[in-house]
Amino acid sequence: LIQGEKPPTKEEMGNAYWTAIHTLAANLQVEATGAEEHACNLIHAIAKLYPCLECREHFAQFVADNPPNCSSRNELLIWTCRAHNEVNKRNRKPLFACDVSSLDGRWGSCGCEG
Ligand code: FAD
């Protein structure tokens, strides 16, 4: 049995969510398939449900001011980067280069296709 593990900290949870958000966008096909819409729905749901209230309010405001483009994998991937950079700025962390090549390098294929 798995026992004694603690709930994630705000930082661990944030890291896990960003990993999910970026990998989800990065693993969409470049040619639109309709799946982009589902990825976008997830972003809107996170803006309503994210467990850290302060984070959720900031994120919801960002989504309202900068609605994600739900029809293009690359636009959505770049959008996730800009959203993350907003938090990085607030937390005085380094910014990430929001171009497709840098994002693919960090978040591209997970090797799970086969
Ligand atoms: P993270 O910021 O979690 O980043 C993980 C990895 O992503 C990095 O190692 C880097 O390789 C990569 N990365 C970094 N920036 C980018 C980018 N722009 N695009 C693509 N990849 C990138 N914390 C707060 O204190 N206040 C908040 O208001 C807040 N709001 C949040 C809102 C959301 C929706 C989420 C998911 C998280 C939020 N967090 C917030 C948590 C915060 O963003 C970090 O996740 C947390 O501080 C842990 O940071 P980390 O150093 O592990 O790296």
From TrEMBL:
GO terms for cellular component: mitochondrion. The keyword Manganese does not apply. Its EC number is 1.8.3.2. It catalyses: 2 R'C(R)SH + O2 = R'C(R)S-S(R)CR' + H2O2. GO terms for molecular function: flavin adenine dinucleotide binding; flavin-dependent sulfhydryl oxidase activity. Residues 6-107 form the ERV/ALR sulfhydryl oxidase domain. Keywords: Disulfide bond, FAD, Flavoprotein, Membrane, Oxidoreductase, Transmembrane, Transmembrane helix. Its cofactor is FAD. This is Sulfhydryl oxidase.
